[in-house]
Design brief:
Blueprint (H helix, E strand, L loop, with lengths): L1 H16 L8 H10 L6 H8 L3 H11 L13 H8 L1 H16 L10 H22 L4 H10 L2 H9 L1 H14 L3 H9 L3 H11 L4 H9 L11 H16 L16 H5 L4 H9 L2 H12 L1
Length: about 290
């Protein structure tokens, strides 16, 4: 136990002190500053966001996601801002900025596109679930879904040897990725993601959702957001759409049933099955 704690502290201290750890992205700061001003217009916000055409493309991809559920196609950033609202745009920009800050190069054991698709599908599904169960901050659910596996990207970028060792344990000893992370690092991708969210002063509820998205029922605090992300994450594996190797053999935490007020296991399974067509439409839209 002492050795595990020692390794955990070592990697946390490394992340705390590493010089090239991305700072809070400039776009994230600019958008937040604009949205703090009640006089900011959609055109002003659109002008600032339009400086980053990569970000614009991703926002439009989100807005036109079948799981996101907008009734008509969105073709401009200004229209996206109007139809999504300032709060949703802020959540999307925060999440996309963090994903971009830790963007990695595709290599043998890391596929950047697969990671992005999984993150996007989980995020869009989390927002849809939040809307369907009446969770009041569905934009927050989107952000939490997009960021839930950020810690994996961090491991791949900053601890390449350890990342390779984790993958080898999974391949050769049939160990789960989370168990392999603990074995090699003494810390999991959930803990790393939560740690970075705290470092960037994101809301605690987002940090908690990153920490607890595998087993939300063990979260003693506000665990509704964690449960929503967990369910969305599970659906990607169940339907094989936007699924991710790190989540193979993903176990559904049935403790989410009372948390999300979904009645019983039979009702939960029917609720999950009702999303299958939406997931299929989602992946088709991403191919386009």
């Amino acid at each position: 136990m002492i050795e595990v704690e020692s390794r955990s502290n070592y990697y946390k201290n490394f992340l705390r002190n590493v010089q090239n750890l991305p700072s809070i992205p400039y776009m994230m700061i600019e958008v937040t500053k604009l949205l703090d001003n009640p006089k900011t217009s959609a055109s002003e916000l659109g002008f600032v966001i339009s400086r980053d055409q990569g970000l614009v493309a991703k926002i439009l991809t989100v807005a036109n996601s079948p799981l996101y559920g907008l009734p008509r196609r969105v073709s401009t950033i200004e229209f996206a801002i109007v139809i999504l609202g300032f709060d949703h745009i802020k959540n999307i920009v925060i999440a996309l900025s963090m994903i971009e800050a830790f963007k990695n190069i595709t290599e043998k054991k890391w596929n950047r596109k697969t990671f992005w698709v999984h993150s996007l599908v989980t995020a869009a599904a989390a927002k849809r679930i939040a809307d369907d169960i009446g969770y009041p901050k569905s934009g927050e659910a989107f952000t939490a879904g997009l960021l839930h596996d950020l810690g994996i990207s961090v491991i791949q970028r900053y601890f390449k040897d350890e990342f390779a060792a984790i993958c080898d344990l999974v391949e050769n000893q049939q160990m789960s990725f989370v168990s392999a992370e603990n074995e090699i690092l003494g810390i999991t991708h959930q803990e790393i993601g939560s740690f970075l969210a705290e470092k960037w002063n994101l809301p605690k509820i987002l940090s908690d959702s990153m920490l607890n998205h595998h087993e939300p029922s063990k979260n003693k605090g506000d665990n509704v957001l964690s449960a929503i992300v967990h369910l969305a994450d599970f659906m990607t594996q169940k339907f094989g759409i936007g699924n991710f190797s790190w989540d193979e053999n993903y176990t559904l935490d049935e403790g989410i049933i009372p948390i999300l007020r979904l009645g019983n296991l039979d009702y939960l399974n029917k609720f999950i099955d009702s999303y299958e067509t939406l997931f299929k439409h989602q992946i088709e839209s991403l191919k386009i």
